[in-house]
Amino acid sequence: MTLQKLTILGSTGSIGVNTLDVIRRHAQRYQVIALCAHNQIDRLFDQCLEFQPRFAVVRDAELALELGRRLAAVACPTCVEYGPDALVRMAELPEVDAVMAAIVGAAGLQPTLAAAVAGKKVLLANKEVLVMAGPVFMRAVKENGATLLPIDSEHNAIFQSLPHDYSGDLLKSGVHSLLLTASGGPFLNTLISDLERVTPEQACAHPNWVMGRKISVDSATMMNKGLEMIEAHWLFNVPAEQIEVVIHPQSVIHSLVQYVDGSVIAELGNPDMRTPIAHALAYPERIAAGVEPLNLFKIASLHFERPDFERFPCLALAYRALRKGESALAALNAANEVAVQAFLDGKIGFTVIPKIIATVMDKSPVTVMTTLVDVLAADSAARQIAEQVIDEMASA
């Protein structure tokens, strides 16, 4: 058995914590080389003590100094670095075999792209990388011989349900369409008129999954499913017209693949992110993830319905952005990140989020995305517009 050496980008978040839980169960198979976080140094400190990585990365010099002092006090040899450049270095380390890309949002783009350019096995949990920079990232994977494995439960389910030799050619593979399942979030049955009064705490209370605040809000607006639809487009080379979102409140069927002969293949399991993480870590083998077996008798029944675009306008905006393509996708992602943060900060209401995104998309010219510079420029421009729109709303 070959020891697999890993960098974990976003080790203190939900995906990072679950990744370390799987690794903990298989210590003979995996070695953590680098743990990268933002500012949760208490949790990162504990992770360093347990896994003894060579490196730890935090947001800034002040946090790095504090973490370094605490680790030195207990004789932990982990070297502490900080900042975006350090994240990139951790993704490129020659001794690292695989990189778990679990930093939320645009902040994860550059280190994840660096891992692809370095030809690593990339375990992709950051959907924004493909939303912002799909063609740039996928070209880097192909040109540098990187291995790309999806961690999102939906895309991991599709990966498992596609033919093992799927090459991105739908016709050749006999694939008709992809079906992305969505729980519908906490407001599936809330009166639309009541959504204006939704609080951040309510939006972050997901009925099935334990996630960070940003992705929880995205799930509540169903922008998360819109971003996943765009991610599926790039991962599997499938046009928007052949990616359908299906509301499935139980979150037991994680996604499905429809074939031209009428067959539908699905991946089922309890809603626990350790399942797709373990699948990707060990691929093509299977290892225990610590997840309870699915009890179909307990579930008893499964429910499905079409999404309501009036209730979930963010999902419609994502389809619109993918059809426009190029920088419209970066604008969608940037506007959403700014709007969600403004909602979490109490600056705007829940139903204002899609209005801001739509306004930013209308005001952002569509430009070609050829390089990382193009992507970052489109992202920056859209964020500026979003901030201006929010300021104008506040002063109105």
Strand tally: 11
Gross morphology is globular
Question: Any idea what the radius of gyration is?
Answer: 21 Å
What's the total helix number?
A: 17
Give the averaged pLDDT, no decimals. Answer: 93
* Helix-strand pattern: EHEHEHEHEHEHEHHEHHHEEEHHHHHH
The termini sit apart by 64 Å
**Percent of residues in β-strands:** 5-15%
Strand count, sense and barrel status of the largest sheet are: 7 strands, parallel
Strand order within the widest sheet? Answer: 4-3-2-1-5-6-7
Could you walk me through the main structural features you see in this protein, from its secondary elements to its overall organization?
The strands form two sheets. This protein has a seven-stranded parallel beta sheet, with helices on both faces. Strands 9-8-10-11 form a four-stranded mixed beta sheet. The protein has helices at 14-25, 41-51, 61-73, 84-92, 109-117, 127-143, 153-161, 170-173, 200-203, 213-221, 223-236, 274-282, 296-299, 313-324, 327-344, 352-363, 372-395; strands at 4-9, 30-36, 55-58, 79-82, 98-101, 121-124, 147-150, 175-182, 243-247, 253-259, 264-268. 46% of the residues are buried. Helix 6 links the parallel strand 6 (121-124) and strand 7. The radius of gyration is 21 Å and the shape is globular. Helix 4 (84-92) runs parallel beside helix 5. The protein has 17 helices and eleven strands. The protein is of the alpha/beta class and 396 residues long. The mean pLDDT is 93.
